[in-house]
Specification:
Length: 431
Amino acid sequence: VSTMNAKNSTEGEEEASGMRNETLGESGSLGEVKRGQVIRVAYVIAALDLTFLFMQMGIMPYLAKSLGLDSVGFGYLQTIFGVMQLVGGYIFGRFADRFGARAALILSCASGSVFFLLMSFSTSIPLLFLSRLPGVFMHGIPGAQKVITDVTTPSQRAGALGKLGLCFGVGIIAGSALGGALSTKVSIYAPTYVGLVGSLLNILIAVVWIPSQTKPKSDHGETEHGTSQSGSLFSIREILRLMKFPGVMEVFIVKVFAGLPIGLFMIMFSIISMDFFGLEAVESGYLMSYFGVLQMVVQGLVVGKLARHCTEMTLLRLSVFVFAGVGLGMALMRTVWHYCIIAVPLVFAFSMLATITDSILTKAVPSSDTGAMLGICASVQPLTRTVGPTIGGVLYKQFGVSSFGYLLLMVNLGLFVYLLKSKIPLGEMKS
């Protein structure tokens, strides 16, 4: 009798917990321990994915130069990769919504395997350009974000997404160091072999440790008003439908324009570091490692704590205001030491803006559309990389480094005033 009572009590608690989980948008089929394990696995996959990505980014200029590709051709190579990422971001998100986060992560890792395999065979310029094509489905971070979004409550989401910054820092530091060491001591193609093996390992990790379905069971087969009706993986109508949810368009505009000037600056940073700061390649690498450490500290320790004590609108306004201050600092900076000081609030504002806007936007749409929303968010950076070289080149050539600072200042002051005066409805869409 006592056993039966205990069983009934446990079942009642589980049923109540499941009801609470469905209300909060959690996956009712995952226990608390299991959810924590799944999130940690997503962090591991993201960290490895970024490490391999930064490894190839470090050797790419040297590989392109060894094949006889000039600076203009290298720009075209980067643009093609940006276009592939831009086109594939939303499609990848829709794929995640339809087939699950695990399938999306496997697709990303499989695309990475093909990417590194083609790079390892790139003994000519056409093959090097061909290796950029699998980048259309290489979206490890959005895949990890999708897993985290599915298994966390709305109140936990900003902190959990913020800790992905630790993965970004690990990727910058480990990827840059490993890529340089392997290419110098083994061969220029050694990092591509490691990336190939590592991407296959990520597939195995996803298959073993990520559940086949991380969404709440109530999400399956949703046909209510406001949920996805299109059978196509890419639909302009679906994008417009998501943008019509309360607050989505306003927050997305802030996300795009607040970070655009600094995105243009970062695209031109390799040239700025040589011409304006006078840095050598090794010193530039140290500066990137410094950024990686800042990213880890800010997103790992600061963003989550602030998210627990402040409203998301407050943090959004704070990130925009700090960006405006960073713009003023950039307009006045003259040495690399000035930039190292400015980098602290810069990384804070950039990390906070990315995390808070992703959190707001995924909560503003139905849980059946979080993958598509994350895909749209992930397309912002590739869009900047696509148009950035042209706009950034004109700004730097015509007006100098200070132009990036003044642009950042003016844009974010305007956005800050807009956020103060507007009443953006930050509703929370229930599944």
